[in-house]
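Q: My labmate handed me this sequence with no annotations at all. I'd like to see what the chain might look like in three dimensions before we decide whether it's worth expressing. Could you predict it?
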Amino acid sequence: MEIYEKALYTMNELFAKDCQFAMATVKDNKPSVRVIDTFFEDNSFYVVTYSKSQKVRELEENSQVSLCNEFYRFSGNAYNIGHPLLVENRELREKLIKVFEPWYFAHNNENDENMCYVKIELEEGFFYKDGIGYKVNFQLKEVEEFPFDLNTEPVS
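A: Here is what I predict for the chain of 156 residues:
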């Protein structure tokens, strides 16, 4: 397995489930951070939210976002990809309902036209598993792999 495919496989192991991240958006050159639930698939994280929320309004002005969870961190561009009941979101909706099953319908009203999904297309990231760190450039499909544990110097 090539190193890029190995990194993606590892990301699926770590993040293809309900994962909480702090997400930073930018408005007027000032960061704004909140905790969100995410699901990873196909080089992107997905978020269930509301189109009138502060985070969506901010990413519509500036799509650049960062995600952080413990020692994992990612950056990319986020886009409102529309309502869950859109035909183009049908497959994704089925996955997100399953992944977020404990709370999906308790916290979301699909009858509300402002409910939406946000797709975060990744540019760069750092994560680790089983003593191996991965620094990934998703656009160039390049990966730096190195020994990593919590006692080593963090990657900048």
